[in-house]
Amino acid sequence: MSSDPSTTYRLVLDAEEMRLAMALLGRQSGATGEMKAGVPRGFLLGAFEGNQLVGVTASSLAPDDVSPPRMEQDRLCVTDLAVDAAAAGRGIGGGLMRLQRLVAVQQGLRLVTWDQDPLEGRLSHLAIHKLGAVSRGFKAALDGEPEVELEVEWWVSSPRVKSHLAGGRPELDLAHALEAGAPKLNAGRLDDDGLLRPIGGDAPPDSATALVEVPHDFQGLRARNPELGVEWRAHLTRILTGAFAKGYWLTDYLWLRGERVPRAYFLLIDGERTLG
Protein backbone atom coordinates (compact mmCIF):
# COMPACT_ATOMS: atom_id res chain seq x y z
CA MET A 1 0.00 0.00 0.00
CA SER A 2 2.99 2.27 0.42
CA SER A 3 6.18 2.53 -1.58
CA ASP A 4 8.05 1.73 1.63
CA PRO A 5 7.84 -2.03 2.37
CA SER A 6 8.69 -1.41 6.03
CA THR A 7 5.33 0.35 6.56
CA THR A 8 2.44 -1.80 7.77
CA TYR A 9 -1.24 -0.87 7.95
CA ARG A 10 -3.80 -2.17 10.43
CA LEU A 11 -6.48 -1.26 12.93
CA VAL A 12 -5.45 0.86 15.91
CA LEU A 13 -6.54 -1.28 18.83
CA ASP A 14 -4.95 -0.73 22.23
CA ALA A 15 -5.23 2.31 24.45
CA GLU A 16 -1.65 3.53 23.95
CA GLU A 17 -1.88 3.36 20.15
CA MET A 18 -5.20 5.19 20.32
CA ARG A 19 -3.63 7.91 22.46
CA LEU A 20 -0.82 8.34 19.92
CA ALA A 21 -3.33 8.38 17.06
CA MET A 22 -5.43 11.10 18.66
CA ALA A 23 -2.32 13.14 19.40
CA LEU A 24 -1.22 12.91 15.74
CA LEU A 25 -4.68 13.94 14.54
CA GLY A 26 -4.64 16.83 16.98
CA ARG A 27 -1.27 18.10 15.71
CA GLN A 28 -2.47 18.06 12.11
CA SER A 29 -5.99 19.43 12.55
CA GLY A 30 -7.11 22.58 10.77
CA ALA A 31 -5.85 23.68 7.35
CA THR A 32 -3.21 21.01 6.87
CA GLY A 33 -5.02 18.55 4.67
CA GLU A 34 -7.30 17.00 7.27
CA MET A 35 -10.29 15.12 5.85
CA LYS A 36 -13.57 15.72 7.61
CA ALA A 37 -17.05 14.33 7.27
CA GLY A 38 -18.81 15.87 10.26
CA VAL A 39 -19.76 12.54 11.85
CA PRO A 40 -18.52 10.91 15.07
CA ARG A 41 -15.36 8.85 14.82
CA GLY A 42 -15.93 5.13 14.47
CA PHE A 43 -12.63 3.25 14.18
CA LEU A 44 -9.01 4.10 13.52
CA LEU A 45 -6.57 2.72 10.95
CA GLY A 46 -2.87 3.24 11.50
CA ALA A 47 0.33 3.18 9.48
CA PHE A 48 3.28 1.82 11.45
CA GLU A 49 7.01 1.78 10.86
CA GLY A 50 8.15 -0.81 13.38
CA ASN A 51 6.32 0.17 16.55
CA GLN A 52 6.09 3.85 15.58
CA LEU A 53 2.73 5.23 14.45
CA VAL A 54 3.38 7.49 11.45
CA GLY A 55 -0.11 7.94 10.02
CA VAL A 56 -3.76 7.51 10.95
CA THR A 57 -7.25 7.77 9.50
CA ALA A 58 -10.58 7.82 11.32
CA SER A 59 -13.84 6.72 9.72
CA SER A 60 -17.37 5.61 10.53
CA LEU A 61 -20.53 4.36 8.84
CA ALA A 62 -23.31 6.73 7.84
CA PRO A 63 -26.48 6.53 5.69
CA ASP A 64 -25.75 6.74 1.97
CA ASP A 65 -27.60 10.04 1.50
CA VAL A 66 -25.27 10.90 -1.40
CA SER A 67 -27.31 8.40 -3.43
CA PRO A 68 -31.06 8.85 -2.67
CA PRO A 69 -32.09 5.45 -4.14
CA ARG A 70 -29.65 3.79 -1.68
CA MET A 71 -30.75 5.59 1.50
CA GLU A 72 -31.22 2.30 3.32
CA GLN A 73 -27.60 1.38 2.66
CA ASP A 74 -24.44 2.73 4.27
CA ARG A 75 -21.36 4.56 3.12
CA LEU A 76 -18.01 4.89 4.88
CA CYS A 77 -17.17 8.46 5.98
CA VAL A 78 -13.51 9.33 6.46
CA THR A 79 -13.45 11.98 9.15
CA ASP A 80 -9.70 12.53 9.54
CA LEU A 81 -6.37 11.80 7.89
CA ALA A 82 -2.98 12.69 9.34
CA VAL A 83 0.61 11.71 8.50
CA ASP A 84 3.57 12.53 10.70
CA ALA A 85 5.66 15.32 9.17
CA ALA A 86 8.81 13.18 9.32
CA ALA A 87 7.11 10.52 7.17
CA ALA A 88 5.63 12.87 4.56
CA GLY A 89 6.19 12.07 0.90
CA ARG A 90 6.42 8.30 1.35
CA GLY A 91 2.94 7.36 0.12
CA ILE A 92 1.53 6.75 3.60
CA GLY A 93 -1.66 8.73 3.03
CA GLY A 94 -2.35 6.68 -0.08
CA GLY A 95 -1.65 3.45 1.79
CA LEU A 96 -4.08 4.39 4.54
CA MET A 97 -6.79 5.21 2.01
CA ARG A 98 -6.26 1.91 0.21
CA LEU A 99 -6.85 0.17 3.53
CA GLN A 100 -10.00 2.26 4.00
CA ARG A 101 -11.14 0.95 0.62
CA LEU A 102 -10.54 -2.65 1.71
CA VAL A 103 -12.60 -2.04 4.83
CA ALA A 104 -15.43 -0.63 2.72
CA VAL A 105 -15.34 -3.51 0.22
CA GLN A 106 -15.29 -6.09 3.02
CA GLN A 107 -18.37 -4.42 4.49
CA GLY A 108 -20.13 -4.58 1.13
CA LEU A 109 -20.03 -0.79 0.70
CA ARG A 110 -19.63 0.95 -2.64
CA LEU A 111 -19.03 4.51 -1.48
CA VAL A 112 -16.44 6.22 0.71
CA THR A 113 -16.83 9.97 1.29
CA TRP A 114 -15.01 12.84 2.94
CA ASP A 115 -14.84 16.64 2.81
CA GLN A 116 -11.67 18.47 1.87
CA ASP A 117 -10.37 21.95 1.18
CA PRO A 118 -10.04 22.46 -2.61
CA LEU A 119 -6.97 24.60 -1.99
CA GLU A 120 -4.98 21.76 -0.40
CA GLY A 121 -3.03 20.72 -3.48
CA ARG A 122 -1.29 17.61 -2.18
CA LEU A 123 -4.55 16.22 -0.82
CA SER A 124 -6.33 16.93 -4.13
CA HIS A 125 -3.51 15.18 -6.00
CA LEU A 126 -3.88 12.12 -3.77
CA ALA A 127 -7.67 11.99 -3.66
CA ILE A 128 -8.65 12.98 -7.20
CA HIS A 129 -5.62 12.09 -9.31
CA LYS A 130 -4.19 9.05 -7.52
CA LEU A 131 -7.23 7.43 -5.93
CA GLY A 132 -9.81 8.30 -8.60
CA ALA A 133 -12.26 10.14 -6.33
CA VAL A 134 -14.56 12.82 -7.76
CA SER A 135 -16.51 15.82 -6.48
CA ARG A 136 -19.85 17.17 -7.64
CA GLY A 137 -20.17 20.09 -5.25
CA PHE A 138 -19.33 21.90 -2.06
CA LYS A 139 -20.45 20.83 1.38
CA ALA A 140 -23.67 22.67 2.28
CA ALA A 141 -23.82 24.71 5.47
CA LEU A 142 -26.90 24.87 7.67
CA ASP A 143 -28.05 28.04 5.93
CA GLY A 144 -27.81 26.36 2.53
CA GLU A 145 -24.79 28.36 1.39
CA PRO A 146 -21.70 26.42 0.22
CA GLU A 147 -18.86 25.83 2.65
CA VAL A 148 -15.22 26.04 1.57
CA GLU A 149 -14.87 22.24 1.50
CA LEU A 150 -15.59 19.90 -1.37
CA GLU A 151 -17.82 16.87 -0.92
CA VAL A 152 -15.65 14.05 -2.26
CA GLU A 153 -17.03 10.72 -3.46
CA TRP A 154 -14.88 7.62 -3.86
CA TRP A 155 -16.81 4.85 -5.62
CA VAL A 156 -14.47 2.11 -4.51
CA SER A 157 -15.70 -0.71 -6.79
CA SER A 158 -16.01 1.37 -9.97
CA PRO A 159 -13.84 0.69 -13.04
CA ARG A 160 -12.45 4.23 -12.70
CA VAL A 161 -11.14 3.65 -9.19
CA LYS A 162 -9.84 0.17 -9.97
CA SER A 163 -7.96 1.59 -12.96
CA HIS A 164 -6.43 4.40 -10.91
CA LEU A 165 -5.29 2.05 -8.15
CA ALA A 166 -3.89 -0.53 -10.56
CA GLY A 167 -1.54 2.13 -11.94
CA GLY A 168 -1.79 0.91 -15.52
CA ARG A 169 -3.71 3.84 -16.97
CA PRO A 170 -1.82 6.55 -18.92
CA GLU A 171 -1.12 9.69 -16.91
CA LEU A 172 -3.31 12.56 -18.08
CA ASP A 173 -1.45 15.88 -18.10
CA LEU A 174 -2.22 19.48 -19.04
CA ALA A 175 -1.09 19.02 -22.64
CA HIS A 176 -3.53 16.13 -23.11
CA ALA A 177 -6.40 18.18 -21.68
CA LEU A 178 -5.61 21.17 -23.90
CA GLU A 179 -5.27 18.96 -26.99
CA ALA A 180 -8.69 17.51 -26.20
CA GLY A 181 -10.13 21.02 -26.31
CA ALA A 182 -10.51 21.82 -22.61
CA PRO A 183 -10.52 25.63 -22.23
CA LYS A 184 -8.94 27.39 -19.25
CA LEU A 185 -11.66 29.15 -17.26
CA ASN A 186 -9.09 31.22 -15.38
CA ALA A 187 -5.34 31.72 -15.22
CA GLY A 188 -2.62 32.43 -12.71
CA ARG A 189 -0.17 35.30 -13.21
CA LEU A 190 3.16 35.41 -11.36
CA ASP A 191 3.73 38.78 -9.73
CA ASP A 192 7.10 40.38 -8.94
CA ASP A 193 7.32 38.37 -5.71
CA GLY A 194 6.82 35.08 -7.54
CA LEU A 195 3.31 34.64 -6.12
CA LEU A 196 0.47 33.38 -8.27
CA ARG A 197 -2.42 35.82 -8.71
CA PRO A 198 -5.81 34.77 -10.14
CA ILE A 199 -7.22 36.39 -13.26
CA GLY A 200 -10.28 35.67 -15.39
CA GLY A 201 -12.84 33.08 -14.48
CA ASP A 202 -15.83 35.26 -15.29
CA ALA A 203 -17.34 33.08 -18.03
CA PRO A 204 -18.96 29.81 -16.90
CA PRO A 205 -17.93 26.57 -18.61
CA ASP A 206 -19.88 25.58 -21.72
CA SER A 207 -17.76 22.76 -23.19
CA ALA A 208 -17.52 19.06 -22.42
CA THR A 209 -14.41 19.66 -20.28
CA ALA A 210 -12.74 22.67 -18.69
CA LEU A 211 -9.64 23.58 -16.66
CA VAL A 212 -9.44 25.68 -13.50
CA GLU A 213 -6.03 26.82 -12.29
CA VAL A 214 -5.37 26.57 -8.56
CA PRO A 215 -2.19 27.32 -6.54
CA HIS A 216 -0.57 24.01 -5.62
CA ASP A 217 1.24 25.35 -2.54
CA PHE A 218 -1.63 27.39 -1.14
CA GLN A 219 -0.32 27.29 2.44
CA GLY A 220 3.03 28.72 1.35
CA LEU A 221 1.28 31.42 -0.68
CA ARG A 222 -1.03 32.34 2.18
CA ALA A 223 1.84 32.49 4.66
CA ARG A 224 3.60 35.06 2.46
CA ASN A 225 0.48 37.05 1.54
CA PRO A 226 -2.67 36.36 3.60
CA GLU A 227 -4.79 38.75 1.54
CA LEU A 228 -3.86 36.91 -1.66
CA GLY A 229 -4.94 33.68 0.02
CA VAL A 230 -8.36 35.19 0.71
CA GLU A 231 -8.55 36.37 -2.91
CA TRP A 232 -7.74 32.90 -4.25
CA ARG A 233 -10.35 31.24 -2.02
CA ALA A 234 -13.11 33.59 -3.15
CA HIS A 235 -12.00 33.27 -6.78
CA LEU A 236 -11.95 29.46 -6.76
CA THR A 237 -15.20 29.15 -4.80
CA ARG A 238 -17.00 31.38 -7.31
CA ILE A 239 -15.76 29.42 -10.35
CA LEU A 240 -16.43 25.97 -8.92
CA THR A 241 -19.83 26.93 -7.50
CA GLY A 242 -20.91 28.07 -10.97
CA ALA A 243 -19.53 24.94 -12.62
CA PHE A 244 -21.15 22.58 -10.12
CA ALA A 245 -24.48 24.37 -10.59
CA LYS A 246 -24.27 23.58 -14.31
CA GLY A 247 -23.68 19.87 -13.65
CA TYR A 248 -19.88 19.71 -13.93
CA TRP A 249 -17.86 17.16 -12.01
CA LEU A 250 -14.31 17.65 -10.69
CA THR A 251 -12.49 14.57 -11.96
CA ASP A 252 -8.73 15.22 -12.00
CA TYR A 253 -5.94 17.33 -10.53
CA LEU A 254 -3.12 18.06 -12.98
CA TRP A 255 0.12 19.05 -11.23
CA LEU A 256 2.97 20.55 -13.28
CA ARG A 257 5.89 19.74 -11.01
CA GLY A 258 8.69 20.91 -13.30
CA GLU A 259 7.76 24.60 -13.20
CA ARG A 260 9.79 27.11 -11.19
CA VAL A 261 6.57 27.79 -9.32
CA PRO A 262 4.54 24.53 -9.48
CA ARG A 263 1.27 25.03 -11.34
CA ALA A 264 -1.86 22.93 -10.98
CA TYR A 265 -5.29 22.64 -12.59
CA PHE A 266 -8.58 21.01 -11.76
CA LEU A 267 -10.15 19.17 -14.69
CA LEU A 268 -13.93 19.52 -14.87
CA ILE A 269 -16.24 17.44 -17.04
CA ASP A 270 -19.85 18.09 -17.96
CA GLY A 271 -21.51 15.18 -16.18
CA GLU A 272 -24.60 15.09 -18.37
CA ARG A 273 -22.77 15.49 -21.66
CA THR A 274 -19.82 13.23 -20.86
CA LEU A 275 -21.36 10.62 -18.57
CA GLY A 276 -24.97 10.63 -19.70
Structural summary, described in words:
The chain folds into 2 domains: 7-166, Aminopeptidase (3-Layer(aba) Sandwich), CATH 3.40.630; 174-275, no CATH class. A hairpin with a 5-residue loop joins strand 8 (186-190) and strand 9. With 276 residues, the protein is of the alpha+beta class. The chain is globular and about 55 Å long. It is built from 8 helices and 12 strands. The strands form 3 sheets. A 7-stranded mixed sheet has the order 1-2-3-4-5-7-6, with helices on both faces. Strands 10-12-11 form a 3-stranded antiparallel sheet. A two-stranded antiparallel ribbon has the order 8-9. Helix content is 30%, strand content 33%.
Annotate the secondary structure layout.
Blueprint: E1 7-11, H1 15-27, E2 43-49, E3 52-63, E4 74-83, H2 92-106, E5 111-116, H3 121-130, E6 134-140, E7 146-155, H4 159-166, H5 174-179, E8 186-190, E9 196-200, E10 209-215, H6 218-224, H7 226-245, E11 248-256, E12 263-270, H8 271-275
